[in-house]
Design brief:
Blueprint: H1 19-33, E1 41-45, H2 49-60, E2 63-69, E3 77-83, E4 88-94, E5 103-111, H3 115-126, E6 130-140, E7 153-159
Parallel strand pairs: 1-2, 1-5, 5-6, 6-7
Antiparallel strand pairs: 2-4, 3-4
The structure holds 1-O-pyrophosphono-5-O-phosphono-alpha-D-ribofuranose and adenine.
Length: about 160
């Protein structure tokens, strides 16, 4: 059996039930992004990256771009396949959503093996944009997902 099924599922969703706590978390996310200069676009990863990405983009005054699983986005897309513990998946963004050379922050709720965030970095790079920060609310440190990334990374809450 693989490693992931034996892990506690870590769930950010209860935080959204309390507007004050959710607001505090969004402020923490914004604070964590502030030392990275020149962010021009926030890319959020389906699905829970969509809960935080648009709010951060609004606070920063920049565009929000959803990276979705294969086949969900209309129009021309850029795709990046990636390995899961069992099988493969594919992330896509709309071709017109990111411009060449743009400084991009990628946000998701959680970093586990790092495969999803790595694929998002590769996708943004494929779009000829520049990943300036990968930001996750939760990091499962024991899975060493951070080691897969060759871009700056920050998390707000860590579990072993
Ligand atoms: O670091 P990794 O091992 O790649 O795992 C992290 C990803 O897994 C979870 O998403 P999930 O695949 O469950 O998709 P969902 O948010 O659409 O439910 C989580 O929200 C991250 O996006
Ligand atoms: N929410 C989660 N908790 C634990 N491991 C995970 N791997 C991917 N998502 C996870």
């Amino acid at each position: 059996m693989g490693l992931l099924p034996s892990l506690n599922p870590r769930d950010i969703l209860p935080v959204l039930r309390n507007p004050e706590v959710f607001n505090d978390l969004n402020e923490e996310i914004y604070e964590a992004s502030k030392s990275t200069t020149g962010i021009e676009c926030v890319v959020g990863l389906e699905s829970r990256g969509f809960l935080f990405g648009p709010i951060l983009a609004q606070k920063l005054g920049v565009s929000f771009v959803p990276a979705r699983k294969k086949g969900k986005l209309p129009g021309e897309v850029i795709s990046q396949n990636y390995e899961l513990e069992y099988g493969t998946d594919c992330l896509q963004i709309q071709k017109s959503s990111i411009t060449k050379g743009q400084k991009v922050l990628i946000i998701d709720d959680l970093l586990a093996t790092g495969g999803t965030m790595k694929a998002a970095c590769d996708l943004v790079t494929k779009a000829q944009a520049d990943v300036v920060l990968c930001l996750c609310v939760i990091e499962l440190v024991g899975l060493k997902g951070k080691e897969l990334l060759d871009k700056p990374f920050k998390s707000l809450i860590t579990f072993d």
